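Note to self: keep these together.
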Amino acid sequence: MKWPRDRGTDVSALKIKTCFFEKDPSVSLYRRAFAEVAGTLLLVFCVVSAGIAIQRVTSSHVATLAVLALVTGGALCGLVVAFGDASGGHFNPLITVLQWISGDRDIRCTMAYVIGQCAGGVVGALLANVLLAGERPATYPPTDVLHLMAAEAVTTAGLMIVIFGCMRGQRVMTGPFAVAAWLTAALLAFPACYMNPAIALSATWAAGVVALPVSRALLLILAQIAGAAGALAVISIAYPRAKPAEPDSQVAEA
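Structure:
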């Protein structure tokens, strides 16, 4: 059976226009993964830089939350619009892995994206530390771990529902703005949430108010995975996948 050279996204192969899938999956995987590296790097750089900068000009907790929420939502929206056609504009391993679980992305592409996202995030955090001469906090504020993990799971589930709802509802251009709106609202309501394993991992290298100890980052990532699993169940009910059409005789030729 003859298949396209790179079947990174079955949805693109079926020529269904939707967000969070690359426009042309036949483009080299290295180029598409590079877009994920660059996008995640810039996203984390903006978030960490904003945290360091706002901490230097004000001690207001409300101002800090507002700035981080707006910076995160705005940066992500712009980066998804900029890189969406190239790679799908994920910048979040949970999106990539859920696409793989759903059968929309192969394992090679999934691994390249996830590794690139995590590496890009760490470099973005270190770059912000160097350019703004940020320092990691000596101590971290005490937090109720169970409540923190519950909030992380709920906000992550909401983010994945927004993303996959836009994707399966074929909302081509509304996805980035819907995601930015959810992130801004969620971060204002639950400011300790990260909703992204790449950012949580990067925060263990970051300075300023977004920094995390490794133990807390690992707990947040576990909560994010749980939230993503719950979101996939909700989306599977709300948007059941149609059975794939039988390939025509030309595609099915050996």
